[in-house]
Amino acid sequence: MSNLSVFNSLKRISKAYSDVLMPIPEDIFQTTPPIGGWSYSEVYAHIFDASLLSLLPLEECIKGIGKEKPTAFIVKVILFFGSLPPARYKVPPILANRVKKISKSEAEDFINRFLTQLETAYSGIEEASDKIKNKHPNLGYLNAAQWLRFIEIHLKHHLKQLKRIEKSF
User: Fold this and answer.
1) Which residue ranges form the domains of the chain, and what is each CATH number?
2) Residues 156 and 93 sit within 8 Å (Cβ to Cβ)
3) Of 2, 26, 73, 148, whose CB count within 10 A is highest?
4) How many CB atoms lie within 10 A of CB 39?
5) Residue 49 zone, left/alpha/beta (φ > 0; ψ -120 to 50; rest)
6) Torsion over CA of 110, 124, 144 and 159, rounded to 10 degrees?
7) Residue 110 and residue 46: Cα distance in Å, rounded?
8) pTM
9) Distance, CA of 34 to chain centre
10) Tally of CB atoms within 10 A around 136
């Protein structure tokens, strides 16, 4: 999959998050769902905070800041197929304390901030060396294109979570 395809997919997925967000009443947005786990609010806070944070190592790769390390085979498989293996995942400890309840307007601001920063980061991705990588807390070393693909996979993964939350209300 080309970087441009992934970039366009990220814009479409972000729009899907906006579309899901609009009809949810604020009180439901904040409510822990009957199935337990995160509220819509916490999912939005996590996914766009994590996406913004993921743009930082992507940008470092573009600037040539990183290490020449291999990417694990299983990670290459995940990136190739474009989805995480079916399972429930624990948030990496570095992100766990950042998850909080936010308002719908804060969620929309997060989405817009992500899209703005994505545009900036993407503008330099074609110049990035595929050898320069930065460490993901669970997946190991990723280059700029792999970080972009990971963000797409992660956003798609949490869209499924939103559907589970919706069905539980």
Assistant:
1) 3-168 (1.20.120.450)
2) no
3) 148
4) 17
5) alpha
6) 30
7) 10
8) 0.93
9) 25
10) 17
